[in-house]
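Consider the tokenized backbone below.
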């Protein structure tokens, strides 16, 4: 479980491509606490398990299909957050690191020091996104500004812009989306209310 509060920007330094098996990513992080084999780390919002002490992660083909990890290349910057402890204060919202899909950036507009980003959401997920509700984009806990016709907007304050990978994004990029855990479970309960 995570909070959606990015603690470091990592860099992909090596990729082992295996066409019929999992992919291996080696990540360099400068401000992350030591990562041990078996630790969970949210990598641009995807909960991944370190497979050694030098911060290498193994990614299944299913995860590659659902996320933007298939676009990762050597030199790519990614948001990093280590799993929270039960005693931690939750500064963002509860984030599982279970990405639902990707969303496309349609617009980035600067408004004073902040940036407003408009995103195109897959139709099957827009029902989980509510004005003033919580979402995670590339692992960052954010509040939704508006929702309309399969699109939604978020506002990125200057601190978040400068301390996450949003500063590197451009129109047309795809971000990992995790909808709010509460919305996901409420939908499931309503769907199975007569079961």
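A designed sequence for it:
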């Amino acid at each position: 479980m995570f909070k959606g509060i990015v603690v470091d920007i990592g860099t992909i330094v090596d990729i082992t491509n295996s066409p019929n098996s999992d992919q291996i990513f080696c990540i360099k992080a400068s401000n992350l606490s030591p990562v041990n084999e078996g630790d969970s780390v949210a990598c641009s919002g995807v909960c991944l398990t370190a497979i050694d002490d030098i911060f290498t992660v193994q990614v299944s083909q299913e995860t590659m299909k659902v996320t933007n990890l298939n676009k990762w290349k050597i030199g790519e910057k990614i948001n990093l957050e280590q799993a929270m402890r039960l005693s931690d204060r939750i500064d963002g919202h509860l984030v599982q690191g279970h990405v639902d899909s990707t969303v496309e950036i349609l617009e980035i507009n600067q408004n004073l020091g902040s940036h407003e980003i408009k995103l195109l959401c897959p139709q099957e997920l827009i029902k989980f996104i509510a004005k003033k509700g919580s979402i995670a984009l590339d692992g960052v806990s954010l509040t939704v500004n508006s929702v309309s016709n399969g699109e939604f907007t978020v506002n990125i304050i200057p601190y978040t812009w400068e301390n996450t990978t949003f500063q590197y994004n451009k129109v047309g990029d795809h971000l990992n989306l995790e909808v709010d855990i509460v919305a996901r479970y409420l939908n499931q309960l309503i769907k199975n209310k007569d079961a």
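The mean pLDDT is 93.
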